[in-house]
Fold these 4 entries.
Entry 1:
Amino acid sequence: MNDPKHFELSRRGFCLCCLGSAAYVASGGWLTPAQAFAEARNIVDLIRYDAAKAPIKLHRLRGNVSALEGSGGNIGLLTGDDGKVFIDAGIAASRPRILDASKQLSGDPIKYLINTHWHFDHASGNDWLHSVGAKIIAHENTRKHLSEIQRVEDWDYNFLPSPAGAIPSEVISANRTLKLNGASIELKPYKPAHTDGDLSVTFGEADILHAGDTYWNGIYPFIDYSTGGSIDGMIAASDANLAAATNNTIIIPGHGKPVSNKSELKDFRDMLVDIRDKVAALKKTGRTQQETVAAKPTAAHDAKWGQFVIDPAFFTKLVYEGV
Ligand SMILES: [Zn+2]
């Protein structure tokens, strides 16, 4: 655990923090995160295994809104007399530690869960949250993906349909406002971005935006082409997030340090635009994906953004796929 790469991954607080050690055992030597992606066939199982031990860190944000870090994607949590409202469910194995953290905030029962999208590191906890009383709300495409066998090519993984209790019982396809616990909660579907079922959640009075996986704070993002994501969609979603935020807005990203702001979000958007343009220019001259990766179009950004699971080569491939 003294390996600096492992420390770096852990510090970022993502569910892959023990991927390095698992890959070490499997391969007999340390791998970069991208090598681990390529070589650990069961990466999704490794993430689930890791979440069974990872601590959950509680961040009190503003008003009655908090964030929980450490179970896959960052979880938003609103408390009050109407019952707790979860934004994303994290990974199922974190259940006892998520419950402990949420009980530190209040004894309110759990009543609602809003999924920002269908990925397992945001929705594999759906079943247990539903079993303790949560009504699940999501984008209609999220319900579709959770209901069917879903292959994610870039993870080399087939997800089975979720159990009945994990399927959202209410879906949205347009903006929707809920009034709960004295908060105006706005659910806004994005156009296809990280997937084709992303939505943002805004807490009006507290001025907090949960952007789901349309925003990765300080790290290159994953883009899921298997279910409708694209680099151009990610840029459009970033523009929508910027338009929805002021300098006072607290922004919860899907991954990365869970308390962020408009200035950091703008850096993320500008990074996406610059790399998109560079990769598109290389592809236009006829370079293959491999040749484009070799040309290192992300080089100017790697020190800041490329130190995590989605490394420069993997991110270049994801961008190349969409330009
Ligand atoms: Zn995701």
Entry 2:
Amino acid sequence: MNVAEAVGRCLVAHGVDHVFGVVGSGNFHVTNAMVGAGARFVAAAHEAGAASMADGYARVSGQLPALSVHQGPGVTNALTGIVEAAKSRTPMIVLAPEATSPRSNFYIDLPGLAAALGAGFRRVTAARAVAEVAEACRAAVAGAGQTIVVALPLDVQPQPAGDAEQLARLDAEVTRRGPAVAAAHAAALSSSASGGGGAPIAGLVDALAAARRPVFIAGRGATRRPAEARAALTALADHCGALLAVSAAARGLFAGDPWYLDVSGGFATPLAAELIAQADLVVAWGSTLNMWTTRHGRLISPGTTVVQVDLNAAALGVNRTVDLAICGELAGVAGACLDELTRRAVVLPGWRTPALRARIAAEARWRTVPYTDETGAGRIDPRTLSIALDDLVPAARTLVIVSGNFMGYPSMFLAVPDSAGFCFTQAFQSIGLGLASALGAAVARPDRLTVAALGDGGFLMSVNELTTAARLGLPLLVVVYNDAAYGAEVHHFGPHGHPLDTVTFADTDLAAIARGFGCAGVTVRGPDDLVAVANWLAGPGARPLVVDAKIASSRPSWWLEEAFRGH
Ligand SMILES: Cc1ncc(C[n+]2csc(CCOP(=O)(O)OP(=O)(O)O)c2C)c(N)n1
Ligand SMILES: [Mg+2]
């Protein structure tokens, strides 16, 4: 068995059963080996799309996917999506064939590139290919997660794999233990989790015991094992009367909990902002409390005790000084704190009163906040659009959102069922990734309707993947908040009197473009036009629907003011 085949088969034996990519000569054999071993290959129109599909798939499924690209330009085409994944610590294997001779047209400095992207790097050798791929898979899912570029040198791929006999043992183990995905992940995660036992939790227990108005803010780190994190954090919060909030990246984690304030930060409701500012203790669970989550620090009042708990030691204290930093697995730390508080017989009511519960029920969603509807002159108010979509779209949904002025509207007005139902690719703040991320999400959860909320600029950057959307026939609703502009830039620079010709465009008929790709397409200019969306939802949904929503955009979104402080 040669190295290319051994690598492909070994990946599948480790549970990598989805591979997204564009196939060329350098990744033909390894991709076919994966398919031959039972993996599903999803062909993308462009490597940029393939990278974001793999990232979206990983975020929503919790499984380890592969991205498979051609050497050289296949790799460079995928760079932006790989950086988004790497910054988000998405567990993902990038299969990168490598032309090792600098005289080759395809040559790039692959290890240097991986380092520049912030991704891990491994190069497969003929002698230890199987062991090296196994190590890469384990490293990808260990700890806080990692995106790993696995270099497959072109001259090594056809050589006999020196440790191919290990594959037989792996295959036997997979047969014995059932789907390898769960087994490999569980083993890696439990071995990497330090648990609460080893972490110094006494300081946190003291802080919880002393707090009268505690708030927990959970972040992306809590979404790696969301069910466990939710169970442990809500049990502890119930015991000490804490209120629950999340960073935008973890939106949905506490959905349905009566003490859930939704997002802390620029997207926070007035009620959430008011209550978080009153906290005397903030515990950040897998959140670095960045400028978005804290409104540049202003959401957390001076004098508030701040504790940060994170499995990733490098994340501790990166964005602000904290009174106490604990490195440990979140559920384990929370469970140990609860045990200790119980042992000390400390029962804390916190600030959970019936009156506050009623206020949270009435005011903790944006759609309950009054606004003046600016629909008119053939353009729909994006808030009205988002609220109508929230009513129309089934609750079992995955919402995928990228950067742009528009992004707060769907983020704030559409509910999500859980953290896997919210895919927010913002770590690199790139536009143009959302359509492909949504395709990966839809592959991961075909039982849910995937709703991609995009800006017209970002949509047009990635419109080629509509061909993939039409081919896959997945349940996918693409809503383009179309202001015929790079709205973020218009609202950034317009108030200062700068010319805006470089960031404004003639209107584009996106519904017609969608139909050209074989999708359904409708234009929405007012609430009445949404009947077409209702009809599509009532139908078989065999073709994705693109909604070209011509939105009113006279003013910037209110969260943008916050964003511009970050530039
Ligand atoms: C790849 C990339 N190019 C450029 C930018 C700068 N940028 C940020 S938001 C934005 C405008 C996005 O336009 P659109 O997708 O239509 O959303 P809108 O802001 O209009 O709501 C641009 C160009 C970026 N973030 N990423
Ligand atoms: Mg726009």
Entry 3:
Amino acid sequence: MKNLTILLFLISVGLHAQSKKIDKLINNIEPKVIEWRRDFHQHPELSNREFKTAEKIAKHLKSLGLEVQTNVAHTGVVGILKGGKPGAVVALRADIDALPVTERTPVPFASKVKSTYNGIETGVMHACGHDSHIAILMGTAEVLAKIKNEIKGTVKFIFQPAEEGAPKGERGGAELMVEEGVLKNPDVDVIFGLHISAITNVGTITYKPAGIMAAAQSFTIKVKGKQAHGSRPWEGIDPIVVSAQIINGLQTIISRDTELTKEAAVITVGLIRGGVRSNIIPEEVEMIGTIRTLDYDMQKKLNKEIKRRVPAIAEAFGAKATIEIDKGYPITYNDVNLVNTMLPSLQKVAGENNVKLINAVTGAEDFSFYQKEIPGFYFFLGGKPVNVSLEDTASHHTPDFFIDESGFKLGVEAFVNLTLDYLNTKKN
Ligand SMILES: [Zn+2]
Ligand SMILES: [Zn+2]
């Protein structure tokens, strides 16, 4: 009994020393993370054009002794860290692209970069905070590389291009990375990802089990009527009036046929085009829009109902309507078991009261493509200065978007602890 007590004491001293060592490594990395982030911020690159960004990432990962793959899904970089002991495989993901936004913040490292996007001259800015993601993951890689011998398993660092969407006519992002085998060889067991949030206080982590961000599908509706003089509608079939009925019909699917207490769902018609002048009833109207869902059964039902109802409404008026719905982005779906198992790791680093359950976000995120293949956990990391009110906070994708760098350390701590805790508890 006495021996057992001594053994347990020694193990706890050992664990304590280990966690002290990791704390020290994380404290030391913080200034570097901030420095890297400022450099990426000052030199942003658009989706699928992250050439210099990728070069810097690859150079850093190589300097840590990692096995490095470049040009994955165009400009993606993957680093593989093999721990000293056998075990599972964890992937950590950062997206690396910037946006066609002209920066207006007063920071000394503000971007002055210009480029063209869809043929239009524009400023380029890390207006979604992906610069923070790159720096946090580079810092995480450095910390974990330094304790490599004690790691039970393998860590894959995924630096992914084009999260905001590839340019017209190109493919890219998480979907292409998955296709190119980023989750294979070695096969990844689980994946973690975070997004810095300009509307969440520094020091806070927010999360939601199951659907945290929506599936986004685009649709196109074409309504064909019969052209007539605007003064004699009875001689034609007015596709504009039919379109109005279709729009109402779509909204009624949401309000009458969707179980909104389960999860949110949205249909938005964002464009309607038809007609040339006041006294002509046109032959055709085109509408495009978006469908947002957070539950796969609800998505299936919505899709089926839209496809059934749109042509049926048109037919009731003697018109014809076709509808096409694309595959879109999947639901950013947090594996419920994984969330329950790993939540204590986040509570440990942020403090229990600083890890908060949130409502789902109806925006979409291509991290969802990894989660379609393997269990994943995606959460938000606070980047809003605590003393600034929400009304004075610029949202993501805008010229005044601002991130408080003191939030980065918690990001590194979260990634390091999620990784080690998962690998230490996982039995192979
Ligand atoms: Zn974004
Ligand atoms: Zn983003």
Entry 4:
Amino acid sequence: MSSSSLLAKAFEPGRLAGLTLRNRFIKTATFEGRTPGGQPGAELARFHRDVAAGGTALTTVAYCGVSADARTFDDQMHIHEGVLPALKALADGVHAEGGAVSGQLAHCGGFSRAKPVKQRRPLGPSGGINEYGLLSGVPFKGAMTPADMARTAADYANAARLLRRAGFDAFEIHMGHGYLLSQFISPATNRRRDDYGGSIDNRMRFPLQVLSAVREAVGPGVPLLAKINLADGFDGGLTTDEAVRCAQLLEAGGVDAIVMSGGLVSRTPMYLFRGTSPLPGLIATEKNPLMRLAMRATGKATFADLPFEPLYFREQALRVRDAVRVPLAYLGGVTSAGDVDRLMRDGFDLVCIGRALLYEPRMVERMRDDPDYRSPCTHCNECVPAMAEPRGTRCMVREAAA
Ligand SMILES: Cc1cc2nc3c(=O)[nH]c(=O)nc-3n(C[C@H](O)[C@H](O)[C@H](O)COP(=O)(O)O)c2cc1C
């Protein structure tokens, strides 16, 4: 470590709205797969308690569907009274370890293979073919009306209100990766001609309405983070210029921090992850034979290896840093204490970690004790297909070594 290291700063307490964080580390959302039949249980609670016990300040419960129709597939949880006791136990476990817990508020929009419950078809900014549901009996998606949007914003608010009752400390509104709000923000998926389509300011209108609705539900003291794309990763998708504007609008809309990611799970998943393609594992765990066939035929184009490099979103994230004052959470390829030092010197406020914390839930503690700590995570991405296994998302490299 150089004498100008700012690594120690990452271990200082931080504040987001009314919440004190014991340090600057966030366990980012990595869908845990521990909600069979949509029901969270002791395994999900243990997963997050382990992260908190390892020193991370804020752990994020991935993909909390804001309604039954917000789910991308059947085994995903949606937030309702029935899941609150289990989520309260989860939050209590995290708090007992000195950590805080955030819920990722998510909605699939027109990207779903779950049979709609209250509507005829999944709804997003624009109608058409629902590629993800095409071979699972949900072939079409519809376009939301302003009334659908108002109802959906109320679902986000209601989910946050319920999660507050379960003891959740913060919320991350998912505006990236091709889910509902990202579908509105991306020019590739939003073809509307009304006030919600066209310019980036128009495309941000509904995400900002959701932010306001959640803020009204939880009040000013509860941190609201927004996870956005720095770019969609293909021609015709969201550009980093537009992402900068998106961050400025969120800042003006009163968000407490922005988490920066990229890619659409439907089109550019490897832009999001980098590293080795998980396609063979995804085919092996796919239960629908038609989907397996389709993945064999076309999967290679979507899931091609893309070289991993540490801090792979740094250059784009620096552009956002130069344009806003709101706290920024860096995400993407943090694998060592040296990376964290770099981010502190860059002036990022928070550090999000996904896969390296799957390998080692005590990574934050390890980095505090050893400024040369380097994660053994190989970015094989075998944790991705593990999401669909009964034991859920976990590091397969670590498991093989155990
Ligand atoms: C197994 C797995 C599941 C993921 N699930 C989610 C999710 O539910 N929501 C989300 O926003 N991002 C999800 N991600 C993306 C991560 O939040 C993060 O963007 C990505 O892993 C890059 O960060 P890393 O290099 O620190 O792992 C997932 C990533 C992995 C590996």
